Amino acid sequence: MSGLDRAAGRLGNALSWLAYAALILMAVQVSASVASRWLFGQDIPVTTELATYYYMVALTYLPLALVDRRHGHLFAEFFYVLMPTRVQRLMDVLNAALALGFLGFLGWRTALGAIDRTRSGDVISTTIGLFPVWPAQWIVPVGLGAAGLAVAVRLAEAFRALPHDPHQEGDRR
Question: Is residue 172, in this structure, part of any structural domain at all?
Answer without folding.
Answer: no
